């Protein structure tokens, strides 16, 4: 398959990662079929996520001090974390690896690599604008403001801020973003980065899917449930689906948390765990004071983004397995926090709640590239930054599958044997 851009590829996954992967492979000269188990694209984690494109704010979850914070969060009614022990070794392996990554030196190393990936992703999204105009999916360069409630947290963030960031006092935060006026006296300050954006990920996926259908090398969508890979003579020869076998010259796994099970059918253990997150979407009225800047409440781990005429709020990490149910207590807690923080930002009587499973690695870095099978490739593990990194990892994978050298070293971004 290497260096052959006339081969046929099956991409598994119709979310933002799978769709961008399909596009970059088509542009590289491959024929592509995309397999998606839903009746439409973007029905999983891409459906109603936070909508932030955070190219410069890529802080990995694993860091020094996080384990102690996590214990405190578990006992807070409004805490961002919930944990339900499972009789599943995959949960405990992931937790052990996560704890091993909770070191300042490893966090700095991963952050540096994710910043490289973020910059590539930003440039790749700009490149894609020729096919998918920004205004087609409510893209807006809003900038990103991370507000801190405690002085210690703010001081730490200030010390880490690079030259491109602006350090704002609490008064600056409220002056530059009036939606924060109700909590200005509760803030220590904030770190603002220009150039960050917000957009509607689901609409982006739908528009990109239309561009795929128009591409001369696209072989079409197969809406079917993938069951696993068929191995013959030491290589992947087909994808088993409910409707039968699908053959190709190569296969790309980009199916969110389902990738974990599909990879296991080929004897590959992916270090992924579904971090369940919630979002709220509410319409913005003419009289509302909605945020123009994308805002992240650092201590509460809640983000706010204005997407078109709606307010999108995303938050929480529930480690409860592959449970997609809407927990009324969690939705109620998040709704109360939102009303306290931005009481006049939207029509909260018309809130729509959603939950999705973010396929996360222990160190928050996605996994891109080859496996021990020459025909099986990976683009998985983006966690909460799937929208942010999708274009970058798609372009990287297309380069790798053509035998091209990547633009930077991929240490920490590939599958460990």
UniProtKB/TrEMBL annotation:
<keyword id="KW-0560">Oxidoreductase</keyword>
<dbReference type="GO" id="GO:0016491">
    <property type="term" value="F:oxidoreductase activity"/>
</dbReference>
<feature type="domain" description="FAD dependent oxidoreductase">
    <location>
        <begin position="9"/>
        <end position="400"/>
    </location>
</feature>
<dbReference type="InterPro" id="IPR006076">
    <property type="entry name" value="FAD-dep_OxRdtase"/>
</dbReference>
<protein>
    <submittedName>
        <fullName>D-amino acid dehydrogenase</fullName>
        <ecNumber>1.4.99.-</ecNumber>
    </submittedName>
</protein>
<dbReference type="InterPro" id="IPR036188">
    <property type="entry name" value="FAD/NAD-bd_sf"/>
</dbReference>
<dbReference type="Pfam" id="PF01266">
    <property type="entry name" value="DAO"/>
</dbReference>
<comment type="similarity">
    <text>Belongs to the DadA oxidoreductase family.</text>
</comment>
């Amino acid at each position: 398959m290497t260096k052959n851009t006339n081969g046929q590829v099956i991409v598994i996954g119709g979310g933002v990662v799978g769709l961008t992967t399909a596009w970059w492979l088509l542009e590289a000269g491959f024929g592509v079929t995309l397999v998606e188990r839903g009746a439409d694209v973007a029905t999983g984690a891409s459906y109603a996520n936070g909508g932030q494109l955070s190219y410069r704010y890529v802080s990995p979850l694993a860091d020094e001090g996080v384990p102690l914070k996590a214990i405190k969060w578990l006992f807070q009614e409004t805490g961002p974390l919930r944990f339900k022990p499972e009789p599943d070794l995959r949960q405990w392996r992931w937790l052990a690896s996560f704890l091993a990554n909770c070191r300042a030196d490893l966090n700095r190393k991963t952050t540096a690599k994710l910043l490289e990936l973020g910059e590539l992703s930003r440039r790749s999204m700009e490149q894609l604008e020729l096919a998918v105009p920004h205004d087609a999916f409510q893209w807006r360069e809003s900038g990103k403001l991370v507000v801190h409630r405690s002085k210690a947290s703010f001081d730490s963030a200030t010390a880490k801020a690079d030259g491109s960031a602006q350090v704002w006092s609490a008064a600056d935060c409220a002056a530059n973003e009036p939606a924060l006026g109700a909590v200005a006296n509760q803030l220590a300050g904030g770190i603002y980065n220009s150039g960050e954006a917000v957009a509607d990920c689901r609409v982006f996926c739908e528009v990109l899917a239309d561009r795929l259908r128009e591409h001369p090398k696209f072989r079409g969508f197969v809406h079917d449930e993938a069951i696993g890979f068929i191995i013959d003579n030491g290589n992947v020869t087909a994808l088993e689906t409910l409707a039968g076998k699908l053959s190709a010259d190569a296969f790309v796994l980009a199916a969110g948390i389902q990738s974990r099970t599909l990879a296991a059918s080929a004897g590959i253990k992916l270090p992924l765990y579904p971090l369940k997150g919630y979002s709220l979407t509410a319409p913005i009225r003419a009289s509302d004071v909605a945020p123009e800047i994308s805002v992240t409440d650092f201590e509460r781990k809640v983000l706010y983004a204005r997407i078109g005429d709606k307010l999108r709020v995303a938050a929480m990490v529930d480690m409860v397995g592959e449970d997609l149910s809407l927990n009324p207590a969690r939705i109620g807690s998040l709704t109360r926090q939102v009303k306290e923080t931005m009481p006049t930002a939207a029509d909260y009587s018309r809130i729509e709640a959603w939950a999705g499973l973010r396929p996360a690695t222990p160190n928050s870095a996605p996994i891109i590239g080859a496996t021990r099978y020459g025909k099986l490739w990976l683009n998985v593990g983006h966690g909460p930054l799937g929208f942010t990194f999708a274009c970058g990892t798609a372009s990287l994978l297309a380069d790798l599958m053509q035998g091209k050298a990547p633009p930077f070293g991929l240490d920490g971004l590939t599958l460990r044997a």
